[in-house]
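tool_call: predict_structure(chain=1)
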Amino acid sequence: MLILRWCAGLTLMLQHAWEEGVRGWKHVWHKEPWAWAVEVTERGFPLPEVVAAVTVAAGMLGSVFLLTGLLCRLSALALLVCALGGLFLYGGVPDTMERLALYAGIYAVLVICGPGRFSLDALFSNRRAG
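tool_result:
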């Protein structure tokens, strides 16, 4: 489970969440255009900038929580919802669908199985039990 969490968390953080987080930050504070917010707007979501910010925050915080194994099931559930929403939005884009389906599968496993023995969740659970 540790390897699964680290692979998913690092990939999500380094390939997706960090870059979008920086772009979102520049959009909010420096009024630079943000392609993700534009895309969410074009897809017809209400409050598109809020939706864009929430999905990026879920990606950033969720990846940190996956890496540490803290609140892993809750984080994986939030990320699973985002991945399933992405599958719904990108139904006709094969590469994106493949990536989102793989992420959704990983998150579903983490929701069902938990973070594993080597996680902060397990450490805190053992302290309470002992």
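agent: Helices lie at 2-30, 35-42, 48-68, 72-89, 94-113, 120-129. Proceeding to next step.
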